[in-house]
Amino acid sequence: MAASVLGVLFDGVAYGSLLFLISVGLSVTMGLMNFVNLAHGAFAMAGGYLCVALMQRAGMPFLATLPLVFLAIALVGAALERTLYRRLYDASHLDQVLFSIGLTFMAVAAATYVWGPNQQPVRLPGFLRGQIHPGGVDLGAYRLFLIGLVAATTLALHLLMAKTRFGARVRASVDNRAAAAGLGIPVDRIFVLTFALGTGLAGVGGAVGIDVLGLDPTFPIKYMVYFLLVVAIGGAGSIKGPALAALLLGVFDVAGKYYVPEAGAFIIYGLMLTLLAFFPRGLYGRKA
Amino acid sequence: MTTALRTEGLSKSWGGFVANSQISLSLPKGARHALIGPNGAGKSTFINLLTGVLAPSSGEVFLMGERVTHLAPHERVKRGMARTFQINTLFPGLTVLESVVLAICERSGAARIWHRTVAGRRAEIDEAWDLLARLHLDRDADRPTRSLPYGRQRLVEIALALAARPKLLLLDEPAAGIPTGESSEIFDVIAGLPDDVTILFIEHDMDLVFRFARRITVLVGGKPLTEGTPDEIAADPRVREVYLGELPHV
Amino acid sequence: MLRPFPTPAAVSPEEDVIRPAGPCERIARLPADRWTLRETAFWLMPVLGYFAFPGYLMLGSQILIAGLFALSLDLIMGYAGIVSLGHAAFFGTGAYAAGLLASHGWHEPLSGLLAGAAAAALVALPVSLLVVRGQDLGRLIVTLGIGMLFFEAANKAAAITGGVDGLSGMEIAPLFGLFDFDLFGRTAYLYSLGVLFLLFLLCRRLVHSPFGLSLRGIKENSKRMASLGAPVERRLVSVFVIAAALAGAAGALLAQTTRFVGLDSLSFQRSAELLIMLVLGGTGRLYGALIGAALFLLAQDILAGLDPVYWQFWLGLMLVAVVLYARGGVLGGAALLAGRIRGKRR
User: Fold this and answer.
1) Is residue A285 part of a domain?
2) pLDDT for B39 beyond 70
3) Which InterPro entries does this one have (chain B) (predicted)?
4) Which of A120, A218, A244, B73 has the fewest CB atoms within 10 Å of its CB?
5) Contact C35/C41 with Cβ under 8 angstroms?
6) Going by C-beta distance under 8 Å and a sequence separation of 6 or more, which residues neighbour residue A156?
7) Rounded to an integer, what distance in angstroms lies between the CA atom of residue B91 and that of residue B145?
8) Chains A and C touch (3+ CB pairs under 8 A)
9) Out of B77, B90, B110, whose CB is closest to C229?
10) Is C40 an 8 Å CB contact of chain B?
């Protein structure tokens, strides 16, 4: 029993880490640009397909694809930010929602057209398959890899935000966009860089997530509510809040599916409603 | 004489930051009372405590002798407290007439009615026209609020508050954002209000304050520094010190 | 002698007509609901359509039902400003309620319709309490989550709902005990049209009422509404529940006229398509909902020959284009155009 609790906890943390990796970019775009981007999951999906394509067509090893995926999806993100997203920063949330649903539909249709409606398989390298057994607990090697990857990324993000000039500028822009622009901070450039960073991370999340979340064209719609939930509960514009929220969601979702499988997805929706009922402004609160 | 508004030791603090400390104020019915003080003196916090947008850390608020400290904002409105906002807080897409009719319907209770048209509410519409005429807004009645110049939008701000038929009117810098030359129009309107309306206002323009207020409270660092007639306040050396000679020589 | 109307030649630029300086000309537009000729013409179209296109009555019913559904979303989104990503939850609830009644021995259509609306309103009440508290992001998630929750629930409760196979085997008694639901969909069409028209009149009255004005006030500035003494949350709960009842009625109509309820009636796709219909036609105008629903379903029908994948792509492109280039939809664009023409004439 204790072993199974630990195992579920471990899986939940791994799942939550993945959710965080994908959602952190969404949190930043919402906090920084006040943009509700429902198409965020499409960038994760694009990362997944790119990873699969690089492995199958170019014969690249799994790990080697990840930096490429990050760069490519970040570039796509930057291009879309420059051409489309930025035109809607001052639009109403309704317009942003409609626009990003439109993008999502186009991405779903394009993915179906190119790759078909089926799940894509991913071949993980040998050392990431199988399990290790420290102290009699079964831990999936791949899950351990996920946790390590996300922990390292989170640490890097934290250092970027806390220690660098870029981070200070992002934080200033989140606090007050107009004031930051008044201080001579190039808000436009901050926007495109953070957007690219966020979408790039989502792309990597989509690639490393194939083994856990699966990959098919409905991905952006299927997980939309999860990504939004991480931001809504954790609060937009921060790293700590969404990280905590993602772990919480991950553990509850895995535990729910393990202990009460017949309840299915209800656990997560129940948790969502409870949290939103008691913390309508998220765990850490958002600026109004 | 009955008091319209009374506060007892009203205080508000966040953590270690004290925004309002021990403010006790008493306004008789019909008062024209100004609240002045340098930026950050806690004037807006005080208004928010009075209207119930913020809950006080300690102290009490009485409206017409009734304790309202724990009432929700809209319940205080029902008891005759109305306010204007320092920054225009209007209905940009509604016409001026629609805005005022809406405000009057909220007061009269007609706003719950869903099976009769607005155009059929003769009493509310006539009242709205009278109110607009008093504020010289009737020629703009059919224009969307957002298309009005800022100064006239300030008048709509006051019209919406008056639609509540307030016993106590809180004006948060009614002339803010208007060139000095035009602000007197706003104050002419306010000066023309009936005497049984009690008015507490925040204003930075000292000329206007001294012309219009009958009593003045000076707030500094969240605490009342002094209270008195305009003459007393103008003569008070401490007030002069706070304002560094900004006061006109009376 | 006084000439009531000066002829054009009689008025020179120097002596312009001076309006009488009466006390005040108290004329201004306020929400009223005088019925206009244009509206009569609009409603004649579906009636004419009944005679002109007897082969397309099934599609016609679908348009009328979608119009009612979009009307319901317009109430909360176009007037009260609540964006919902899960409005299909109430449509589906109404559809399953009416469908289950009809497949369990209760065949009378009008009471089934009422039951569908009532069921949707009933489930909307607790949901609305959550929705009205949050801000935009919170509302999006609650509505999206509720939509997914309902879908999942219907999927899991296959014993009752039929799961992915859908609910079928309904029997609908003749309307008013007189009119059989025939194979060509004549009764279904007229039934849908009648229900839509009556509920449209209700919506029309509601949005022109003081209550409707207060909803627009909340959409424009909820902070000011609160300071005017309006119980903002209670108003939003009221309109949310009313809108849910309308959505439920639309769902019930679909169940009764097609004698089938599928899981897709609860799907995110359905909620998203509804949003598209409404913005396509124009929000906050009631007629926009009806026009948008018609345009959407006609386009879908024409493009049905295409692969559904293409359809979804064009749908997405349409949304992006509407947001970027045609905010306000068809009616919004028409109003803008009319305004420009008037402006030029002056």
Assistant:
1) no
2) yes
3) AAA+_ATPase (IPR003593), ABC_AA/LPS_Transport (IPR051120), ABC_transporter-like_ATP-bd (IPR003439), BCA_ABC_TP_C (IPR032823), P-loop_NTPase (IPR027417)
4) A218
5) no
6) none
7) 7
8) yes
9) B77
10) no
Q: Output the CATH code of domain C37-306.
A: 1.10.3470
Q: Identify all chain B residues contacting C30, using CB atoms and an 8 Å cutoff.
A: 97-98, 101, 118-119, 125
Q: What are the CA-CA distances from residue A25 to residues A74, A194, C96 (Å)? A: 11, 8, 39
C327 in contact with chain B, both atoms CB, cutoff 8 A? no
Q: Which amino acid is at A179?
A: A
Q: Which residue of C has its CA nearest to B105?
A: C210
Indicate the pLDDT class of residue A282, thresholds 50, 70 and 90.
Answer: low
- CATH 3.40.50.300 residue ranges for chain B: 1-79+222-250
Token pair of B170, please? 């809180």
Closest in C153, C310, C324 to A87, CB measured: C324
Domain span including residue A48:
2-278
What pTM did the predictor assign? 0.86
Number of domains within chain A: 1
* Chain B: closest CA distance from residue C82 (Å): 17
For residues C290 and C281, is the Cβ–Cβ distance under 8 A? yes
Q: Measured between alpha carbons, how far is residue B45 from residues A233, B9, B21 in Å?
A: 29, 14, 11
Q: What is the DSSP string of C10-79?
A: G--TTSPPPPP--S----------PPPHHHHHHHHHHHHHHHH-GGGHHHHHHHHHHHHHHHHHHIIIII
Predicted local confidence at residue C248, as pLDDT: 96
The CATH label, of 3.40.50.300, 2.40.50.100, 1.10.10.10, 3.90.1150.10, for the domain at B1-79+222-250 is: 3.40.50.300
Please provide residue C117's backbone torsions phi and psi, each rounded to the nearest 5 degrees: -65, -40
Query: Which residue of A lies nearest to C137 if distances are taken between CA atoms?
Result: A232
* Nearest Cα residue in chain A from C78: A94
Lowest mean pLDDT among A32-46, B228-242, C266-280: B228-242
Is A284 among the domain residues? no
Q: Please state, in angstroms and rounded to a whole number, the distance separating the CA atoms of residues B179 and B184.
A: 10
**pLDDT given for residue C19 in this prediction:** 39
Beta-carbon neighbour count of residue A280 at 10 Å?
Answer: 16
With respect to residue A250, please indicate whether it lies within any of the assigned structural domains.
yes
C189-193 LR contacts (CB < 8 Å, sep 24+): C189/C50, C189/C57, C189/C60, C189/C61, C189/C64, C190/C50, C191/C109, C191/C253, C191/C256, C191/C257, C192/C60, C192/C61, C192/C64, C192/C65, C192/C68, C192/C253, C192/C257, C193/C46, C193/C47, C193/C50, C193/C64
Reported as type and span, the H/E element at residue B225 is strand B223-228
What CATH number is given to the structural domain containing A272?
1.10.3470
Task: Report the pLDDT value the prediction gives residue A288, as an integer from 0 to 100.
Answer: 33
Residue of A nearest to C329 (CA): A95
Whether the complex's predicted ipTM is more than 0.90 is answered with no
Residues of chain C with pLDDT under 70: 1-27, 304, 343-346
Q: Report the neighbours of C using a cutoff of 3 or more CB pairs below 8 angstroms.
A: A, B
Other beta carbons within 10 Å of C101? 23
CB within 8 Å of A33: residues ≥ 6 apart: A85, A89, A191, A195
- What integer pLDDT is reported at residue B63 of this predicted model? 92
The pLDDT score that the predictor gives to residue A58 is 86
Average pLDDT, chain A: 85
